[in-house]
Design brief:
The protein has two domains: about 5-45, Arc Repressor Mutant, subunit A; about 65-140, 2-Layer Sandwich (Alpha-Beta Plaits), CATH 3.30.70. It is built from five helices and four strands; from the N terminus they run αααβαββαβ. It has helices at about 5-15, 25-30, 35-45, 80-90, 115-125; strands at about 65-75, 95-100, 105-115, 135-140. The longest helix is centred in the first third of the chain and has 13 residues, at about 35-45. About 15% of the residues are buried.
């Protein structure tokens, strides 16, 4: 496993802010030679610490005007029930995140759609038809003063 020393932390921080940095610019920012920096980045990629690079999208410009977090409770707590639910959610492009969590419900979803009407369709025609689902609680996002996800 790759050691995460202070220099690797710096590299990861810089790439988290701008994954399109050239190796020369990255090396300059973290105080390494370009060849040493490239070796470290390649090792971070090979070891799986850096899993990929993404573009940060402007959801509003793409017509995504409605975001909600949804707490989902299942009526059956078997592995088969969870797998069936997760397979259904994996096929739903509206679901941008799905987390299996602890507490009074089993899942927390992040759903992004154009508007309330589209959310209602997802809520009714997708979640509402899944036989494993026993409860749905929606939390509508009114603003995101901090969102560091890519």
């Amino acid at each position: 496993m790759t050691k995460i020393d202070r220099m690797n932390e710096k590299i990861l921080q810089e790439l988290s802010c701008d994954g399109r940095l050239s190796n020369i610019d990255l090396a300059d920012r973290v105080g390494l030679s370009p060849s040493a920096c490239l070796r470290r980045v390649q090792e971070l990629e090979r070891s799986g610490i850096i899993r990929g690079y993404r573009a940060v999208l402007d959801r509003a410009a793409l017509g995504i005007g409605f975001v909600a977090y949804i707490g989902v409770g299942l009526n059956d707590h078997t592995k088969a029930s969870q797998e069936a639910f997760e397979a259904s959610i994996a096929r739903s492009p509206e679901v941008r995140e799905c987390h299996n969590i602890t507490g009074t419900i089993e899942y927390l979803l992040r759903v992004e759609v154009p508007d309330l009407a589209a959310y209602k369709v997802f809520h009714t025609d997708v979640l509402g038809t899944l036989p494993q689902v026993t409860s749905i609680t929606s939390y509508v996002v009114m603003g995101s003063p901090k969102d560091d996800r890519a």
